[in-house]
Specification:
With 285 residues, the chain is mainly β. Helix content is 5%, strand content 46%. It has 2 domains: 104 residues, Jelly Rolls (Sandwich); 98 residues, Sandwich (Jelly Rolls).
């Protein structure tokens, strides 16, 4: 009997019954398997979904909120003292529930006095610092204020009229001993400059004062061997020539009046600061 036809038939039957193996994709010469999961709703196989990585909100560091004066104080009237004076008088009129806003500069440790008097109606005071520290709230409903100031900065005063009717007021603001705590800079005979050195702990400040004439140019330059500091400059009359918002360590400006001028060296919050400051005021031409 010829067995060849029987063997060929058997091989054809075995081939037809064998399971079908899907083609395997080839990547870079290596086999890559694609896993599947059964979808019980659709009854079909779908590719496995990638695993999502989430970040907990609790791990996010949120910077602290810094409270600044509200927008209504952007146009506050700056109070200035006459040369040689430590007090100023301002007058105003308010409609019912109206208000006036004022701002002035003062040193850490100085005492500020504010007193209202009236020829018509009544008003109360609100006082706080540029850093958001409230010194007097409207809840106290008073028309006078006295307090030792906690830091060197601008201070805001709000005069709030009563709802019963219009108000006409006079306000006296005084800050005695405006140079208290400031080191006076004096030039040696024949010199137009002076050098001072100092050390500051983190976030601390040194205060200096010098006398100069209207029209003179003041130059202040600060260098550091450790840390960093920024400058503030203003006149005895309260006129601000350089604010801490500029964040600079040098200054040059023509002086607007004959008076004392104040220089504040503000140390940074990161650590100790060692500085050398040169102040020069050339003579008038």
């Amino acid at each position: 009997m010829n067995l060849i036809p029987l063997i060929v038939s058997a091989l054809l039957i075995l081939t037809a019954c064998a399971p079908v193996t899907p083609d395997m994709p080839i990547t870079g010469g290596h086999e890559t398997e694609t896993s599947v999961v059964e979808n019980p709703l659709a009854g079909i196989s779908t590719p496995a979904q990638p695993t999502l990585t989430t970040t907990s909100l609790a791990s996010t560091v949120v910077p602290p909120l810094v409270t600044l004066p509200t927008e209504e104080f952007a146009n506050a009237e700056r109070i200035t003292f006459a040369s040689g004076s430590t007090a100023a008088l301002v007058k105003g009129s308010l409609p019912a529930s109206g208000s006036d806003q004022y701002v002035l500069r003062a040193f850490d440790g100085q005492t500020m006095n504010v007193n209202l008097s009236f020829s018509e109606g009544r008003a109360i005071l609100v006082v706080w610092g540029a850093d958001g520290t409230v010194l007097l709230t409207d809840h106290t409903e008073v028309s006078s204020f006295q307090r030792v100031l906690p830091t060197t900065q601008d201070y805001f005063i709000k005069v709030e009229g009563r709802p019963e009717g219009s108000t006409t007021y006079s306000m006296t603001v005084s800050i005695p001993s405006i140079s208290a705590g400031a080191e006076r800079i004096e030039f040696a005979p024949g010199s137009t400059s002076a050098t001072v050195t100092g050390q500051l702990n983190a976030s601390k400040a040194d205060q200096y004062v010098l006398h100069a004439l209207v029209g003179q140019t003041i130059n202040v330059d600060t260098t550091f061997t450790q840390g960093r500091a920024i400058l503030e400059v203003w006149g005895q009359d309260g006129a601000v020539l350089l604010t801490d918002h500029a964040e600079v360590s040098s200054f040059q400006g023509v002086l607007p009046a004959t008076q004392d001028y104040y220089i504040l060296v503000n140390g940074g919050p990161e650590g100790r600061t060692t500085y050398r400051m040169i102040v020069s005021v050339p003579p008038l031409p």
